[in-house]
Amino acid sequence: MSKIPASSAYAYPLLIKQLLHASMLTSPQQEIVSGDLCRYNYLTFNDRIKKLAAGLSAVGVKPGDTVAVMNWDCHRYLECFFAVPMMGAILHTVNIRLSPEQLLYTINHAEDDVILVHSDFVDMLEQVQDRIKRPVKLVFLHDQDQIQTLPDRFDIEYESLLDLSGSDFEFRDFDESTIATTFYTTGTTGDPKGVYYSHRQLVLHTMGLVAALSPIDVHIRLGKADVYMPMTPMFHVHGWGIPYAATMLGLKQVYPSRYEPSKLVRLISDEKVTFSHCVPTIMHMLLSAPEVMETDLSGLKVIIGGSALPQGLSQLCVEKGIQVFTAYGMSETCPFVTVSDTMGIDHQSIEDIDLAARAKTGKPGALVDLRVVDENMNDIARGGDETGEVVIRTPWLTQGYAGSTEGSEALWRGGYLHTGDVGYIDETGSLLITDRMKDVIKSGGEWLSSLELENIVSQIEGVSEVAAVGIPDERWGERPLIVAARNTESEIEATVEDIRNAISAHVDSGALPKWAIPERVEFVDAIDKTSVGKLDKKVLRVRYA
User: How far is CA 21 from the centre of its chain?
Assistant: First the structure.
């Protein structure tokens, strides 16, 4: 059989535009809902993507330029997820919770050419605008029906930008290794670190997500009948990449704008949302909303990531009918790596064995090469008697930190991406993270898992949130400190003795060494959080040291 001439075959580069083919063919009338702003179908979405690309091109954006977005999660952010990289430019998703100085650093480091700014963040940008090193064009976004005048120094309003040209913009093919997105992690020290992803990496990550979430236990499966709403900011690792997957599958999508608990509960109820994802603190905030008491949440499936899922929070979700489960990743992994295996568990059970299954970091997805190693890169035996660092290879991991050769080499030493997480692989092949390397508490010659202490305390009635950190001790190196927020809705007020007794019970059973019993317990109204909603243990260590 003769070969097909190479000139007549389509090479099919893995570009973000390819994610739209199936949904435009099979789900053109499916809805995209943007809070209280608007709702439209996929046909309109596709037209607006083309208009946005044409408008950006008209104001001078070229392939390789960087377009930054400072916005709440809405339809316009989703349009940027596609239009900007599809025209060959780079999408910079700005963390709107950064300090002004960190914001300035990321704008200058990413070399932004255009910044799309929601009205709520104009004041924040104005604080640093005179120190932006490059000339930038500013596009104004707002939620009003109409706007009379642009703010000073802005070039054009978003909808006017879309009206500059028609919807016949042609998205051409180009190298799939072209950078599509960039954003900045908020590390514990130094300036934010820039990570970046190519079209190829984002397409493969999307396929990896769907391959992992579609065939699993029906109680937590992501399928064509689901209604998707993120509760993770879209600036945080592309909203964990799930907006791309939801669009590829042609799902109904709901974007909440600001993350207000009452609004989230209302949208879940009114729009029949069935699939979401968030960090534990957002789930805690959602369950604390008064509206939850009168709302049926029994159809909701939620991925918990970013931090460990405490069993206490897991129990609250199950009692409310929410199916929670864990997925694992980080900014440098795009982020998906593993998902918990809940096959065979009782999905109405609040028994420890079933709650623990939900909280397991889980099994690797397709194409994920995951190992747990010692400091010499030797594999740690399965079983949990010994722990090591989790290292990973998949085709969608970031290739390094932008502008930091030293940081990139450290991240990828030995040919694997080093996560900084400590854990082990159990007999079933599931990964269990026991702590972050920087958060392990070293006391009396023993290593204590802060996550294990938090898990124990989270199950005490009257405790809503908890953080365990190590604080310096002259005699023992470090001692554990428990910082707990009381549950104001509970009729029982948790005490220091309740916490010590709960941990002592695990010491008496041999599960923990005696050094785990804290000498200090601090009750607070709220525990410090990072810009993406995680417990800020760096701040806690400094405050209580």
Answer: 26
SS3 361: coil
Say which residues have a Cβ less than 8 Å from residue 271's Cβ, sequence separation at least 6. 33, 227, 229, 252, 254
Catalytic residue (choose from 320, 438, 442, 529): 442
Q: Report whether pLDDT(531) > 70.
A: no
Catalytic, 538? Answer no
Q: What's the pLDDT at 543?
A: 84
Q: Residue 160: pLDDT band by 50, 70, 90 thresholds?
A: very high
Q: What pLDDT shows up at residue 190?
A: 66
Residue 13 to residue 92: CA distance in whole angstroms: 22
Can you tell me the mean pLDDT for 434-440? 72
Q: Is 441-544 in the same CATH topology as 41-174?
A: no
Average pLDDT over residues 345-363: 86
DSSP 331: G
- Is 474 buried (19+), middle (13-18) or exposed (0-12) by CB count in 10 A? exposed
DSSP calls for 126-162? HTTGGG-SS--EEEEE--SS--SSPPTT--EEHHHHH
Is residue 72 part of the annotated active site? The answer reads no
Using DSSP bridges, classify how beta strands 336-339 and 323-329 pair: parallel, antiparallel or unpaired: antiparallel
Whether 518 contacts 449, CB under 8 Å:
no
What superfamily in CATH does domain 198-436 come from?
ANL, N-terminal domain (3.40.50.12780)
pTM of the model: 0.84
Active site residue 93: no
Place domain 441-544 in its CATH homologous superfamily. Answer: ANL, C-terminal domain (3.30.300.30)
Whether residue 188 lies in the annotated active site: no
Instruction: From the candidates 31, 447, 529, 534, give the one annotated as an active-site residue.
Output: 447
